[in-house]
Amino acid sequence: MAGKFEVYTDNGGRFRFRLKAGNGEIIATGEAYETKAACLKGIESVRTNAADARVDTLDS
C-alpha cells in the first residue's frame, strides 16, 4: 500500500498535515497553517523538494 498525506485541523483550529507510510505509521508532520490552501501548498512543497533532497547528518 502506498503512503498518504492526511490534512487535519489541530486543537487551535489551524491546518496541519502528516505523512503516513503504507502501514499507517506517521513518518512526517508539517507545521501549522492558517488556511487549508496553505497547508495543501505545504504538501506540494514537500513533494517537489523531497525527491532530490540530500541528507545532512549533524553529529556532534
From TrEMBL:
Residues 10-55 form the DUF1508 domain. It comes from the Bacteria. SUPFAM superfamilies: YegP-like (SSF160113). InterPro entries: DUF1508, UPF0339_domain, YegP-like_sf. This is DUF1508 domain-containing protein. It comes from Embleya scabrispora.
